Amino acid sequence: MKFSIKFLTIGLSILMLTACEKDDDTNPKPQSTSINKILPLGASRVEGARPEYESYRYELWKDLKENDWTFDFIGTQSDEATYPAFNSMSFDIDHEGRSGSTSGEILNGLNDWLNQTGSPDIVLFSSPGGNDILDGQDYNQTISNINAIIDALQTDNPNVTIIIEQPAQGRSNFMTTEYTNAFNQMRQDVLTIATDQTTTNSQVIAIDMFTGFNDTHMADEDHYNEAGAELNAIRYYKVLVDVLE
């Protein structure tokens, strides 16, 4: 009986500790008070999975820090990979990249994420509809979802700047004719979306992520290696220097 009570006590202690750890994991991050709050939004190309494949976020962060910009990456997600310090500074690991997510899943979760992070000043909207295309989802619905995501961001902050990618393709031996046609169509539709969704106070800017992008930039079928991440970062930076306060 004494052994059983002791065992039960230990078990309850473990359960209480586990519960506390889970509570800590679900505590929201403090909302940023920085100027230039940047929300990297998308799926696995935003999230990254170092060392298997890279996100552009680290290279972009270094470019911005090297040029003395004040900014803060925000998002409910935290990058758990290891990154070298840069000029004695630690990488800003916050983001809203959710691997495997479709446009519908991003749309469904967005308002809750924004409630947690606070309003971004700038959104980097990566590879819109990429997983929808790969999953064979209805293309018209994907376009509707992308427009609705932008609507939600502008409702949250009427002055938000949204930089939306004309997405880079996957590795050449992965891209079927169907995939290629859909990605080409998405690039054209992103231009239309950017024009139609721009308001007096909120710019929606299309950014070409596909020109010059080839297999040497790929870690696998559809994710970036370091060269691909750096190419994306350079293109984002060139747009951001005209947007940042």
Please give a structural write-up.
By secondary structure, this protein is α/β, with parallel strands linked by helices. The chain has a single domain, classed as Rossmann fold (3-Layer(aba) Sandwich), CATH 3.40.50.1110. It is built from 8 helices and 7 strands. The chain has helices at residues 2-26, 44-47, 57-66, 103-117, 130-135, 139-156, 177-197, 226-240, and strands spanning 37-42, 72-73, 77-78, 94-97, 122-125, 161-166, 204-208. Strands 1, 2, 3, 4, 5, 6 and 7 form a 7-stranded mixed beta sheet that branches. Helix 3 (57-66) crosses helix 8 (226-240), helix 4 packs parallel to helix 6 and helix 6 runs parallel beside helix 7 (177-197). The longest helix has 25 residues, at 2-26. It is globular, with a radius of gyration of 20 Å. Mean pLDDT is 91; it is low at 1-25.
Question: Count of helices?
Answer: 8
Termini separation (Å)?
A: 69 Å
- CATH top level? Alpha Beta
**CATH fold annotation:** Rossmann fold
Proportion in β-strands: 5-15%
SSE layout and pairing:
Blueprint: H1 2-26, E1 37-42, H2 44-47, H3 57-66, E2 72-73, E3 77-78, E4 94-97, H4 103-117, E5 122-125, H5 130-135, H6 139-156, E6 161-166, H7 177-197, E7 204-208, H8 226-240
Parallel strand pairs: 1-2, 1-4, 1-5, 5-6, 6-7
Antiparallel strand pairs: 3-4
Helix pairs in contact: 3-8, 4-6, 6-7
